[in-house]
Automatic annotation (TrEMBL):
Swiss-Prot/TrEMBL keywords: Membrane, Transmembrane, Transmembrane helix
Location of the DUF218 domain: 61-175
Organism annotation: Gordonia desulfuricans
Descriptive protein name: YdcF family protein
InterPro entries hit by this protein: Cell_Envelope_Assoc (IPR051599), DUF218 (IPR003848)
Length: 210
């Protein structure tokens, strides 16, 4: 045998116990990473979407009721107007494809709820998203000289809606959550967190066309 050539020994070849230790170490790393990611997902989700990020109410040029669900938000927006926080209520109506009697009656009622002192504007957002709603509000603000609005939506939507209005609307925004209760199930909030995270990423990518 040529000199200088190392002779393999049993210590140079990983044995079964060494391979098992490596697999255990890799499995532990994966488990810890998954645990950290899960903790971040739910911990940050709790802070951003579960907690109420409503602003203190103050007078604004208009009250904007975002679409999404008939959970009392339209009447809450009208109530704020009756309490004197704004004389104009802008109600998003992305429900034109919903021909159910309950939806039709509700939208007809709130869209015709204007008085001598309160103006109600209903509109179909294009696109039918928070971004489309914010773009429409910016258009109305430019036409009417608005510099501030109160925006009403779900509690868990406030952070994302604030971010999108910050992109699309040049004025001040007061965010208000619809006064309502929410399901307490783990599955419900897991879905909400995932959807809102995705919506924030989408908003960051799309930006806003003013």
């Amino acid at each position: 045998m040529p000199t200088g050539t190392p002779i393999p020994t049993t210590t140079d070849v990983p044995g079964p116990s060494t391979a098992r230790r490596r697999w255990r170490r890799a499995g532990l790393i994966v488990a810890v990473a998954a645990l950290v990611a899960t903790a971040a997902f739910y911990g940050l989700g709790y802070q951003l979407f579960y907690r109420d990020h409503s602003d203190p109410l103050r007078h604004a040029d208009a009250i904007v009721v975002l679409g999404g669900e008939h959970d009392g938000r339209e009447d809450y927006g009208l109530q704020l107007a009756r309490e004197g926080y704004a004389s104009t209520v802008v109600i998003s109506n992305p429900y034109l494809d919903d021909h159910s009697k309950s939806n039709t009656q509700l939208m007809q009622r709130v869209c015709s709820a204007g008085t001598d002192t309160i103006e109600v504007i209903c509109f179909d957002p294009d696109p039918s998203t928070t971004r489309g709603e914010a773009m429409k509000v910016q258009q109305l603000a430019e036409e009417r000289g608005w510099t501030s609005v109160i925006v009403v939506s779900w509690r868990y939507h406030l952070v994302r809606a604030r971010y999108i209005f910050g992109q699309c609307f040049d004025g001040d925004v007061v965010m208000r959550a619809v006064p309502r209760t929410y399901p307490s199930s783990f599955a419900f909030w897991s879905h909400v967190y995932a959807y809102q995270y995705g919506g924030l990423v989408k908003a960051a990518v799309l930006g806003c066309d003013k």
